[in-house]
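User: Design a sequence. Structure:
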C-alpha cells in the first residue's frame, strides 16, 4: 500500500463505512446533528448580544441590562444542554460502531485461510481489532461535531461579523488563502505518519505477544535484557511516528492562529481609527471583535478535525484491507456427498505437490490409507508429514495432484462436511483460558452427563480430576498453563472422543510426554482409534510398530511402505532409522 493515498482513494472507504455501519444509526445521528447546530448557533447569538449589552451600558439604559443578562444566560443554557446531549449520543454511536466493527472483523478473519494468519503476526491482528476499530469509529463524533456544530458556529459568527461591517470581515480573513497549501501538505504528512504509527503500534502488540508467550524460554536463556531492549526499540519507533503525526496535527490549528492574529491586527488598526473618528460605535466594534475572536475557535477545531480525519483514514485503510482479503479455500457450488459410509472410505493422495512460496514441501506424493486401519507416516523432520494432515483437512491446497476420500475429490466436498470427518490430536493441544468442562465440550450443549462421564473415563481424565480444587470447572489457564502436558493431551483426546469422527489424525500426540504420561495417553489413544481410520505421524518408531501400514517419507515423497516387519527386513530407510533410534534409546 502506498504511503501517500490520493484524496479520491478515500471515497470507497467512506462509502464502505457509511453503508456498512454509519447509516444504521441515521436517526440518532440526525438528532445529534440538530443539537450540534443549536450548540454552534449559540456562539453567534453570544456575539450578537454583545452589541446591545455595550450600547445600553454606554447609554445608561438600566432597564435593558437585566433583559440582556437573562438572554445571555438563556444562550449559555441552550449551548450547555445541546452540547451535553449531542456528546452522549455521539459517544453511543461511536462505541456501537466500534463494537460492530470488531465483531465483523473477527468473524471475517476467521473465514480466511490459514496461510493468511501465518503471514500476519498476532499483534498486528490484535491492533487492527482494537486500535484501528476504535480510531475509525470514534472519529465520527469529532467529524460530525465539526459538521453540525462548528460549521454552524462559523456561519452564524460570520453572519454577525458581516452584519456589523463587511470591510472589517474582509480584512479579518485576508490571510486565509496563505495557509491553504501548507494545510494540504500537513494533511498528507499526518496521513502518512498516522499510517506508520498504526503499523508501529501493531509491532508493539506483536512483540508483547512473543514476550509473554515465550517468557519461560526468555528466563531459561537469560534473555531478559535482550528482550527488554528489543521492546524498548519497538516502543521508540512508535513514539517517533506518533510525534510526527501529532506534530502535523498540531501544525494545522497553529497556522489558523497565525491567520487569526493577522486578521485581528488589521481590524484593530483599521476599525479602531473609525471608532475614534465616530464612524462606528464601541458596541459594534465589541460585537464584531467577539464574533471574530469566537470564529477562530470553531475554525481551529475544524483544522484539528482535518488532521484527526487523516489519521483515522489510515486506520480505515488498514481495516478495509482486511475485509478485502478473501478466503481461497471454499466449498464448491455443488458439493458431492460420499458414496460410502465415512468409516468405509479409503483415503488416497495421488501425485500431490505443494510448495510454500519458493520452498517445495511435497513432490509428487502418493499414498493410501485403508478404511478402519492404522496408517503411520514416518520420516525425518521436514519430510512433509504434517503437511499431509493440513491437505486432508483443506487448511492448505496442493498446487497439483489429487486427494480423494471414498473416491470423491476433497475439493468437491462441502468444507464443513469434510472437516466433520476428522478428529485431530496434535503434540501441542490448544486449550482456551476457560474451565476444563468448556475446553472439552467446546460449546456443545447436546452432551448428556452420562456421555461426558464416559468420555472422561476413556480419556483418563478421571485419573487427575480429583486433584483439581474445582474439578471439571477448574480453569485451564492461558493456553492450558494450569495443566501438565499429559493432562492437556488427555483433554484433547476427550474432545476427539466426543467428536466421534470416523477419521482420526494423530500428530506426534505422545512425543513430548514422559514415560508414565505417554503410557496413559497411549492407552486412551488406542481406545480412540478402534474402528476408525487412523493416520499417525510419529518420530518415535516404537509407537507405530503395530500399525497396519507404515509409509516412510523423505523430502516430500513416499519412498517405502509396508508393515514394521516388512520394512525392517527390507533394510531400507525405515530400517536404518529404527536401528538408529534403538541404539540411541538403549
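Assistant: Done.
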Amino acid at each position: 500500500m502506498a504511503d501517500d493515498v490520493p484524496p479520491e482513494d478515500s471515497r470507497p472507504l467512506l462509502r464502505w463505512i457509511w453503508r456498512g455501519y454509519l447509516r444504521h444509526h441515521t436517526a440518532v445521528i440526525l438528532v445529534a446533528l440538530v443539537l450540534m447546530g443549536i450548540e454552534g448557533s449559540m456562539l453567534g447569538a453570544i456575539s450578537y448580544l454583545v452589541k446591545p449589552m455595550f450600547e445600553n451600558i454606554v447609554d445608561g439604559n438600566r432597564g435593558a441590562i437585566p433583559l440582556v443578562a437573562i438572554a445571555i444566560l438563556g444562550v449559555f443554557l441552550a449551548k450547555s444542554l445541546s452540547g451535553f446531549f449531542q456528546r452522549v449520543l455521539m459517544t453511543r454511536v461511536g462505541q456501537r460502531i466500534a463494537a460492530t466493527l470488531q465483531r465483523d472483523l473477527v468473524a471475517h478473519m476467521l473465514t480466511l485461510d490459514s496461510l493468511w494468519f501465518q503471514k500476519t503476526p498476532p499483534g498486528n491482528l490484535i491492533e487492527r481489532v482494537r486500535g484501528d476499530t476504535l480510531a475509525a469509529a470514534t472519529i465520527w463524533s469529532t467529524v460530525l461535531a465539526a459538521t453540525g456544530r462548528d460549521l454552524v458556529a462559523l456561519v452564524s459568527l460570520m453572519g454577525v461579523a458581516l452584519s456589523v461591517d463587511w470591510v472589517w470581515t474582509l480584512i479579518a480573513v485576508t490571510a486565509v488563502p496563505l495557509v491553504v497549501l501548507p494545510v494540504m501538505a500537513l494533511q498528507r504528512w499526518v496521513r502518512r505518519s498516522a499510517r506508520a504509527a498504526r503499523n508501529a503500534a501493531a509491532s508493539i502488540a506483536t512483540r508483547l505477544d512473543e514476550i509473554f508467550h515465550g517468557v519461560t524460554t526468555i528466563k531459561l536463556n537469560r534473555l531478559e535484557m535482550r528482550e527488554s531492549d528489543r521492546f524498548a526499540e519497538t516502543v521508540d519507533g512508535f513514539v517517533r511516528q506518533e510525534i510526527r503525526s501529532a506534530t502535523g496535527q498540531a501544525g494545522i490549528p497553529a497556522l489558523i492562529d497565525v491567520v487569526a492574529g493577522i486578521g485581528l491586527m488589521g481590524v484593530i488598526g483599521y476599525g479602531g481609527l473609525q471608532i475614534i473618528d465616530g464612524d462606528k460605535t464601541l458596541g459594534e466594534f465589541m460585537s464584531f471583535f467577539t464574533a471574530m475572536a469566537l470564529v477562530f475557535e470553531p475554525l481551529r477545531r475544524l483544522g484539528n478535525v482535518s488532521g484527526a480525519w487523516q489519521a483515522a483514514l489510515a486506520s480505515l485503510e488498514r481495516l478495509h484491507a482486511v475485509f478485502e482479503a478473501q478466503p481461497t479455500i471454499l466449498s464448491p457450488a455443488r458439493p458431492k456427498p460420499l458414496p460410502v459410509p465415512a468409516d468405509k472410505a479409503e483415503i488416497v493422495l495421488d501425485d500431490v505437490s505443494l510448495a510454500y512460496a519458493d520452498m517445495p514441501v511435497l513432490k509428487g506424493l502418493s499414498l493410501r490409507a485403508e478404511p478402519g486401519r492404522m496408517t503411520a507416516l514416518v520420516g525425518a523432520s521436514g519430510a512433509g508429514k504434517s503437511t499431509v494432515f493440513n491437505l486432508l483437512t483443506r487448511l492448505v491446497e496442493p498446487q497439483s495432484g489429487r486427494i480423494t476420500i471414498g473416491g470423491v475429490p476433497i475439493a468437491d466436498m462441502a468444507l464443513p462436511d469434510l472437516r466433520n470427518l476428522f478428529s485431530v490430536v496434535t503434540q501441542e493441544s490448544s486449550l482456551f483460558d476457560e474451565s476444563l468442562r468448556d475446553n472439552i465440550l467446546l460449546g456443545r450443549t447436546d452432551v448428556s452427563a452420562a456421555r461426558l462421564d464416559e468420555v472422561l473415563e476413556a480419556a483418563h481424565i478421571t485419573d487427575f480430576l480429583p486433584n483439581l480444587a474445582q474439578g471439571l470447572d477448574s480453569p485451564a489457564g492461558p493456553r492450558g498453563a494450569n495443566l501438565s502436558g499429559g493432562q492437556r493431551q488427555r483433554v484433547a483426546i476427550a474432545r476427539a472422543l466426543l467428536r466421534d469422527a470416523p477419521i482420526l489424525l494423530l500428530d506426534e500426540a505422545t512425543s513430548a510426554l514422559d514415560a508414565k504420561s505417554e503410557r496413559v495417553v497411549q492407552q486412551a489413544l488406542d481406545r480412540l482409534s478402534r474402528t476408525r481410520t487412523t493416520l499417525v505421524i510419529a518420530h518415535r518408531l516404537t509407537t507405530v510398530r503395530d500399525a497396519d501400514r507404515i509409509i516412510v517419507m523423505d523430502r516430500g515423497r513416499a519412498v517405502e511402505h509396508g508393515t514394521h516387519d516388512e520394512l525392517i527386513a527390507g533394510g531400507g530407510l525405515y530400517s536404518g532409522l529404527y536401528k538408529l533410534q534403538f541404539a540411541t534409546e538403549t
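The domain at 7-324 is CATH 1.20.1560.10 (ABC transporter transmembrane region fold). Residues 224-277 form the longest helix (54 residues).
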